[in-house]
Design brief:
With 166 residues, the protein is mainly alpha-helical. The chain has five helices and two strands; from the N terminus they run E-H-H-H-H-H-E. This is MARVEL domain-containing protein.
Length: 166
């Protein structure tokens, strides 16, 4: 087994290539779904109903946390503060949001209004994506992956000793 060195570049820089990765695409998708669900509730005549308010609280929570995490990855702040357990933090946050979306989407769909049903649909989609991202973070954490940064194989040195003289 070879050894590896972990390399972290701790300078803050903008790197748009993150949005082309699977976690980056998931973050953008959930941000869009959060906004769509919010707009559906706000366009309803029942927007001040407690169910709609709860759904909007969950949608805003997901929107803000996902947006902040997206910015942290885009500017490599996650790599800069690599000592934090980012994978565990994200896994926990996204698992909780997935559960909150399950509850919020179920109660707005049960209300029966068309706008609420549309919001519930977007909420269920967001729930699936948040849950999937939480699963990806769990798997990465269990296998010892890094949230951001990379590992490089260490250079191996072979020392050859001459045969001893009799």
């Amino acid at each position: 087994m070879g050894s590896t060195n972990t390399v972290f570049n701790t300078e803050t820089r903008f790197d748009p290539s993150y949005v082309k990765t699977l976690p980056g695409m998931i973050k953008i998708a959930v941000i869009i779904l959060d906004l769509l669900g919010f707009v559906c509730i706000q366009s309803s005549a029942f927007r001040w109903n407690g169910r709609g308010v709860y759904f909007n609280v969950v949608a805003h929570l997901g929107l803000w946390l996902s947006s902040i995490l997206l910015l942290l990855y885009l500017f490599h702040i996650v790599e800069k503060y690599h000592k934090l357990k980012w994978l565990k933090i994200e896994m926990t946050v996204y698992g909780v949001i997935a559960f909150l979306y399950l509850v919020a989407s179920t109660i707005v769909v049960a209300f029966g209004a068309a706008a609420y049903s549309a919001a519930g649909f977007f909420g269920y989609l967001a729930m699936v994506l948040y849950g999937f991202d939480a699963f990806l973070k769990y798997r990465a954490w269990r296998t010892g992956e890094l949230a951001q940064g990379h590992r490089v194989p260490a250079k191996q040195m072979h020392v050859v000793t001459p045969p001893s003289l009799p």
